[in-house]
């Protein structure tokens, strides 16, 4: 992209008060951004009103510096800037009511162009089982040819990206900051691995910090890119439910994994199921609903009886059941002395068969 064209796009998106809706009106009326800034004040007023027309006539003092910074950022071959009119701009996003004008991309553009994508989202503080489910479902769906899309957040998002990478499947992270930073910082290495196999995407200019309002906004891109959205653990008031609502409004499928009635992280999923989301017990459930069949798949978190169960399990595992349970309740169920019970629980924890939860609770882990 030539410098003057780059400058015009940046000026349009950085002009105070000019959001996506006003910018789309201007582009529809006048064509490319360069033509927008060649219009008379009266022509601009006719499209966006007096206030924005006045703002559009003022060239930001920082524009040259911003263009220089973006030019340097675009130097590496895996750094890209896609405009809404670019041939490589994801077609699915053009079907949205509010598509982004620009997409900053680090990584492989081919991942954005893949037709079969599934969003996996959920709690930033999942239960141990929720973390396992996210990673296993992502791996199983990735093995079956789906590109895994999430938000690079802690918890379910990060586990979903990891699951895709476990099986060398493509994965896309849609973030709420500029791409010259990684948020959260502890996902720096994960972000690097994602760009090698997939892409990290943002609509926000370089230097944009992680402002709270940006994350619900970026969720529409996660939902818009995908055929469906799978929610794995979510509180009733959470960003994951925003993503699910947006997916529904766009006519995309919404899937939810049920959980324990005692777990706050399951209540959002249960609410979605009551509202019509499809209850999911295995990756195959998602594949069948999307009519995407590439042969046998590895299943994540099957329901009891749906897949073959282990031939033998300890009596303590049986007593644990599948809901969080207190030490006192376990002692009542098993009749074991406290030292013996604690020793057996520790062994199950070390074997990855059980987890210790906040509040002195324990939960069995189903690892497929």
From TrEMBL:
It comes from the Bacteria. GO terms for biological process: DNA-mediated transformation. Residues 293-314 are annotated as: Disordered. Belongs to the DprA/Smf family. Residues 302-359 form the DprA winged helix domain. Transmembrane segments: none annotated. Residues 81-290 form the Smf/DprA SLOG domain. InterPro entries: DprA (IPR003488), DprA_WH (IPR041614), DrpA_SLOG (IPR057666), RuvA_2-like (IPR010994), WH-like_DNA-bd_sf (IPR036388). SUPFAM superfamilies: MCP/YpsA-like, RuvA domain 2-like. This is DNA processing protein DprA.
């Amino acid at each position: 992209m030539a410098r003057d064209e780059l400058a015009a796009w940046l000026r349009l998106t950085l002009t105070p008060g000019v959001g996506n809706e006003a910018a789309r009106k201007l582009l529809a009326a006048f064509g490319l951004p360069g033509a927008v800034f060649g219009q008379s004040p009266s022509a601009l007023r006719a499209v966006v009103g007096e206030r924005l027309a006045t703002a559009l006539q003022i060239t930001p003092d920082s524009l040259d510096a911003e263009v220089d910074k973006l030019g340097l950022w675009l130097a590496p071959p895996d750094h890209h800037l896609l405009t809404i009119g670019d041939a490589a701009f994801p077609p699915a996003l053009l079907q949205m009511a509010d598509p982004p004008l620009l997409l900053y991309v680090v990584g492989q553009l081919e991942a954005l162009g893949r037709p079969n994508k599934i969003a996996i989202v959920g709690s930033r503080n999942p239960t141990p089982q929720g973390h396992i489910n996210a990673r296993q479902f992502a791996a199983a769906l990735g093995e079956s040819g789906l590109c895994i899309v999430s938000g690079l957040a802690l918890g379910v998002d990060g586990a979903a990206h990891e699951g895709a990478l476990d099986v060398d499947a493509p994965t896309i992270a849609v973030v709420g900051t500029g791409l010259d930073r990684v948020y959260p910082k502890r996902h720096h290495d994960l972000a690097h691995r994602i760009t090698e196999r997939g892409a990290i995407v943002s609509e926000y200019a370089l230097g944009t910090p992680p402002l709270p309002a940006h994350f619900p906004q970026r969720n529409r891109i996660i939902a818009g890119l995908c055929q469906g959205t799978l929610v794995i653990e979510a509180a009733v008031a959470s960003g994951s439910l925003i993503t699910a609502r947006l997916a529904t409004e766009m006519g995309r499928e919404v899937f939810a994994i049920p959980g324990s009635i005692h777990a706050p992280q399951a209540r959002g999923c249960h609410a979605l199921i009551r509202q019509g989301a499809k209850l999911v017990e295995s990756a195959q459930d998602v594949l069948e609903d999307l009519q995407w069949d590439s042969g046998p798949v590895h299943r994540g978190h099957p329901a009891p009886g749906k897949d073959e169960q282990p031939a033998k399990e300890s009596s303590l595992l049986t007593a644990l059941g599948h809901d969080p349970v207190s030490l006192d309740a376990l002692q009542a169920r098993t009749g074991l002395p406290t030292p013996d019970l604690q020793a057996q629980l520790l062994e199950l924890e070390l074997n990855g068969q059980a987890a210790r939860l906040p509040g002195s609770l324990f939960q069995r882990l189903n690892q497929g």
